[in-house]
Design a protein that fits this description.
The complex is a heterodimer. Chain A is an all-alpha fold. Helix content of chain A is 62%, strand content 0%. In chain B, helix 8 packs antiparallel against helix 9. Chain B is globular, with a radius of gyration of 27 Å. Classes of the chains: A mainly alpha, B alpha+beta. The interface between A and B is large, with 45 and 43 residues.
């Protein structure tokens, strides 16, 4: 899914690339930016529907790192750090913009008061036998639950990284993740035999 | 991953090898996981659910970032980093002051331009440096119908009546620059290393490879740029020239967006939906149907429809037949389709299309 997964931690960051970056080689910044650009772009689309805003925000993020290159350590380019910095930037900026514009449609938001899956369970019952069941089940989760599922299974981050990105404690992340997966399983499981069948037939 | 333990849906769905097998399988991955399934038959249900989870999450959260756009963004980051380095380290508040100064200069410059250009007729492309040794050509469409102008980089400009374009016979390395007075539709050949710039009286439009229309008649109060495909940056000309090398503040247009430069307010105003009529290469739709015809016949018909000459070796292509139907396709799309069908290529030289073909069997 993400070709950048293999360069996702500090230890594997190319030392020569890092030295070139520190020495002020703009091409090196480009290469570093390339590594996680897709992951960042995708994450940003969950906070804003304006592609120009997203591109500008990511550009700004990397250029800020560039201007602070003399003071940075390699960890600045670790995927979860970048995601966290971008999340912070997007939320800060969209709060600022909301004063002037209509609120944008966002999948994840900072609103803590959104309903949990229980309230949507009736609709969930209804969709059980439709196509794309799991997709619908996930899209009915609360925004926080969705973000955690997204960071775990789309960005493939571990609990510690998710905690860092979302600004939560590690225990809260593992509790929330456990509860979310349990909720998904409860609705999803009854139709499982269909799937096993399909899997063996294909 | 060890083969002998109990797996959960979560463990499988976050295993890098498993994910690659689900998303982009290779024969090796396929062999490995089929083998795994045989050895862990009791985990088949778990694997099926992990697989569906990975697919569902990916499908639910995927985006539309194209490779082209990614390349463009990385190139922009690299370019701006280079510029900022050249500027040296400057605390952000100083930069803010500079920006404010640039805005003042721009506003001042544009109002000056407004007052002067309304008293004198400013020649198009005034003040633009032209690289020495580059032979410039000027085409003016004095006819009642559109005129197709072929550029040396395989880009096509469709000139509206009463419009005029100035361009080099052969683009030099570096930027591709043309100067427009009036209205034209551009279908620009992609070349990320050589940006294509259209200068009009008031604006500069910068692209890497895309199609769009510019309307900039002298005497009109507005100039308009509408984008059909790709991504286009538009700048007020004064500002573009002031910020030479640095990052000028412009408007970025995506497909179906347009921007209007208003001479009165000296402002670029973005509108989301561009008029669909403006986004066609030609005002008249050129319907063409070739039903198993010799390709020479298609080339001749195409040349006639667009008022251009298409040169080919009649003997080499004598065995090539073509079946094609065109209605909304533009000239380059038609040329590409025909050439692809007969395994040929083409170039644009001296305002003509030159077909290179090895023939058909």
């Amino acid at each position: 899914m993400n070709q950048d997964e293999n360069i996702s931690n500090t230890g594997e960051l190319n030392i020569r690339l890092w030295q070139r970056f520190k020495a002020g080689d703009a091409e090196a910044l480009g290469q570093l930016a390339q590594t996680h650009y897709r992951a960042l772009y995708n994450y940003a689309t969950k906070f804003s529907s304006d592609p120009d805003f997203i591109r500008d925000s990511i550009q700004e993020l990397y250029l800020e790192l560039w201007e602070r290159r003399n003071f940075l350590s390699e960890t600045a380019f670790v995927k979860s750090y970048l995601l966290k910095a971008l999340r912070h930037k997007l939320i800060k900026e969209s709060i600022r913009l909301k004063r002037f514009h209509e609120p944008q449609v966002a999948i994840f938001d900072t609103d803590p008061s959104d309903p949990s899956i229980e309230t949507n369970i009736i609709e969930a019952e209804h969709i059980r036998f439709q196509n794309g069941r799991l997709k619908r089940i996930i899209s009915l989760l609360s925004k926080r639950q969705q973000e955690i599922i997204y960071l775990r299974f789309y960005q493939n981050l571990d609990n510690e990284d998710i905690a860092s990105v979302m600004g939560l404690g590690r225990q809260s992340v593992s509790n929330l993740l456990y509860r979310t997966l349990k909720e998904i399983k409860e609705i999803w499981a009854p139709a499982e035999f269909f799937w096993v069948l399909l899997f063996f037939l294909s | 991953m060890s083969l002998h333990r109990i797996f959960t849906v979560e463990e499988l769905a976050t295993d890098e090898s498993f994910r690659r097998w689900v998303m982009a399988p290779t024969p090796e991955l396929d062999r490995y996981w089929q083998q795994w399934l045989l050895q862990n038959a009791d985990r088949a249900g778990v694997a099926a659910r992990a697989r569906e989870l990975v697919l569902a999450v990916h499908d639910l959260y995927k985006d539309d970032l194209s490779d082209e756009m990614l390349r463009h963004e990385i190139a922009e980051i690299t370019r701006i980093a280079e510029v900022r380095k050249a500027e040296g380290h400057m605390p952000f508040y100083q930069r803010a002051v500079w920006r404010a100064a640039a805005v003042l200069l721009l506003t001042g410059g544009l109002s000056w331009l407004y007052y002067t250009s309304h008293n004198t007729i400013a020649p198009s492309g005034k003040g633009q440096e032209i690289t020495m040794g580059q032979e410039m050509l000027i085409k003016t469409n004095a006819t009642e119908v559109e005129m197709t102008v072929l550029l040396s980089d395989k880009s096509v400009a469709t000139l509206a009546k009463g419009s005029s374009i100035r361009y080099p016979r052969q683009f030099a390395a570096g930027e591709r620059q043309v100067y427009l007075t009036g209205e034209a539709f551009f279908d620009v050949a992609k070349n990320p290393r050589q940006p294509f710039l259209v200068y009009t009286n008031e604006t500069v439009t910068k692209v890497l490879g895309t199609s769009f229309r510019i309307k900039a008649f002298e005497g009109d109060n507005t100039e308009m740029i509408a984008v059909k495909t790709g991504r286009v940056s538009v700048y007020a000309k004064k500002e573009y020239e002031i910020s030479r090398g640095a990052k000028p503040a412009g408007v970025i247009l995506n497909p179906n967006q347009q921007v209007v430069f208003n001479r009165k307010d000296n402002k670029l105003e973005k509108a989301v939906t561009a008029n669909p009529v403006l986004l066609a290469e030609s005002a008249v739709q050129k319907e063409q149907v070739f039903d198993d015809k010799p390709v020479a016949e298609a080339f001749d018909a195409l040349g006639k429809a667009y008022g251009i000459s298409i040169v080919y070796n009649a003997e080499t292509v004598s065995n090539c037949m073509i079946s094609a139907q065109f209605s909304e396709e533009n000239l380059k799309q038609r040329l590409n389709a025909i050439c692809q069908a007969i395994g040929a290529g083409y170039d644009m030289e001296n305002g003509r299309v030159v077909i290179s073909s090895k023939g058909c069997n």
